[in-house]
Amino acid sequence: MAKYAAALDQGTTSTRCMIFDHSGKVVSVAQKEHEQIFPKPGWVEHDPQEVWARSKEVIDEALSNASASADDIAALGITNQRETTVVWDRNTGEPVMNAIVWQDTRTDRLVDELARDGGQDRFRAQTGLPLATYFSGPKVRWILDNVDGARERAEAGDLVFGNMDTWCIWNLTGGTDGGLHITDVTNASRTLMMDLETLQWDEGIASTIGVPMSMLPEIHASSEVYGEVRSGGGMQGVKIAGDLGDQQAATFGQTCFSPGEAKNTYGTGNFLLLNTGTDAVQSKSGLITTVGYKIGDEPAIYCLEGSIAVTGSLVQWLRDNLKLIKAAPEVEELAQTVDDNGGCYIVPAFSGLFAPYWKSNARGVVAGLTRFVNAGHIARATLEATAYQSREVVEAMATDSGVTLDSLKVDGGMVANDLLMQFQADLLGVPVIRPQVAETTALGAAYAAGLATGFWGDVESLRENWQEDKRWEPNMDAAKRDEFYKYWKKAVTRTFDWFDPDE
Fold this sequence. Notes:
Blueprint: E1 4-10, E2 14-20, E3 26-33, E4 45-46, H1 48-65, E5 73-80, E6 86-89, E7 99-100, H2 108-115, H3 124-127, H4 136-146, H5 150-155, E8 159-162, H6 164-172, E9 182-184, H7 185-188, H8 203-209, E10 218-220, E11 223-228, E12 239-245, H9 246-253, E13 262-266, E14 270-277, E15 288-293, E16 301-308, H10 312-320, H11 330-335, E17 345-347, E18 365-367, H12 375-401, E19 408-411, H13 418-428, E20 432-435, H14 440-452, H15 459-463, E21 468-472, H16 478-493
Parallel strand pairs: 1-5, 5-12, 9-10, 13-19, 19-20
Antiparallel strand pairs: 1-2, 2-3, 4-7, 6-8, 11-12, 13-14, 14-16, 15-16, 17-18, 20-21
């Protein structure tokens, strides 16, 4: 009898496989980074073949680390970096070029062109999304317009598109030998091409963007049995039964199953999601409306989301570009050498600004520099940037939903950073709470897969697995908090309209 549920978590900087027991505890984990490719300023790519190779490697390693076989695994769930776009040949399995990553801004002119008729909210009523470089649809169009012969091959039915979930599932289920070309409602809701009400592709929008319908995967629920692993090494024969975009998976893993429950994930970027139940609430404050999850035949659950492009990747920039630290965890130690940010603010608009501004022609700034500022202040400003951006999203969410948070559930790699979590609590004025399993993205995908196969009975049994690990109580006075935030808002305005979109 199966003892575990597993998840393949295909992230922005790495891919990992995690295996969980029935209580939601981690049994084993294997993780491998893949190359970040930056061909031009603002362009970010991944090699899909490298990602697939890493996926197979971590699946086998995780099984080995758990001393487990395929017979021990009840189901495999997939979770993935959303909006990262792969176009490949269904006959050969070869991608036509590298994947265009969600952070990539090369589609800015195309987005402006689409916005000339109807503005940035042209498709918002149907899709819940503003026109932005973030989403998959314009990336597919860019590939078809810029790769020799791609448009003709797509119209002949030879090319297909998917976010990373679709790419992984297609390969896991056989690839060119009958691989399933599918996605789930959460990933489809990030393309700018799915109707939030019908949960199907909107042919009119796809046509306007310039994407042939034949390229699009079939849309499924987030928790149902799709097929079996046929080319995934040691997991041969395991049912693939869960598929959620990474932030929706983290919301699921945090057991935010009731309207009004929210979580914030601190990863490469930050993503705050608030469950709004079966109502797709349209934002008036710069947030996006997205599908949270869909279990089998049950109605879809929606979320309001605040997406922040650069948080953890700002620490990577400090490490890789500025060489101020040798490893990401060192940023906290360096930041603790000073009492505050010394008046220095870093606004990391490397890919423009996402929520709540949606300005693709913004660029990053370091503001408030004096001779007093040292490496410790820079490190502290790096961490504080994440907390400030999260506060902006929390405020927008309160305006849209009328829900005032009385605490914030957090997860992701950066929640190990005590200084950041304390500053976040201080800045919000509410407790910040970390669960025992902080990597809830993989846990959510495993939960979705295990629900579909009966490994877990219902969502209430998942709630019972959630346990608090640590909480940070706010202890900063309101006047000081407001003073810091005032200068942050001032720094943000310095990033606006850094260049003309026509340049």
